[in-house]
Amino acid sequence: MDIEQERRPLTNTVENPYQVNGSNNTLAAKALLRLQRLVYLSLSLFGLYKLHFYRAIFVSVRIRHVPFQWGLALTIAMFFIKAYVELYQGRLHQQRVNYQNFRQTTHLFLLLWTMTSVCFFVALWPHYKWNTFLVLFLLAFGVVLQFLLLVPNPWAQNGVALVGLTFFLQDYAGFGAA
Fold first, then answer.
1. Is there a domain that residue 22 lies in?
2. Distance between CA atoms of residues 153 and 167, nearest Å
């Protein structure tokens, strides 16, 4: 058999069950995918509840609060970059949001994401030890990513993020102020 025949491009005969805009774009497939994301989100929130995540941030003396505050600051910076790119550049200036148009912004976002992960890891490790991996996975994949996939509208995503971060920062700012 000729090598060129072996290297011919693959045809698109296999349907991807995760492809929302593909040929299998039925109502049942979309509903099943949303249900799956909702289950992931619910299980992740339940896991964080069982690990006493929210209470540990405020009560545990083993949480390192300076790296946690740095992680929060970097999270807010990522939120503003996301809002700027999606809402200001994408919606108001009608610029297509993709890697080619926002290469430097994408790299900056990935750098901030890495720094945020390191900050939260350093902050949570004394309390959770090896469960820190699980906690950060539940937060990143289980809560944040599933929410972003469930609510595809950037206005709604940024609105919920703004309100959620505001309430969390108010609670966290009151921590230790008594």
1. no
2. 21
Number of domains in the chain: 1
Instruction: Let me know the angle formed at the C-alpha of 110 by 169 and 43, rounded to the nearest 5 degrees.
Output: 60
Which are the contacts of 23, defined by CB distance < 8 A and separation ≥ 6? Answer: 15
5 in a structural domain: no
As a whole number of angstroms, the distance between CA 57 and CA 87 comes to 32
Do residues 85 and 146 lie in contact, with contact meaning Cβ atoms separated by under 8 Å? no
CB 82 within 8 A of CB 158: yes
User: What's the pLDDT at 62?
Assistant: 94
Report whether 132 contacts 126 (CB < 8 A). Answer: no
In terms of residue numbers, what domain contains 49?
A: 35-174
**pLDDT tens digits, residue range 130-177?**
999 999 999 999 999 999 999 988 889 999 999 999 888 888 886 654
Q: Is residue 75 part of a domain?
A: yes
Backbone angles phi, psi at 155, to 5 degrees: -65, -45
Residue 74 lies in a domain: yes
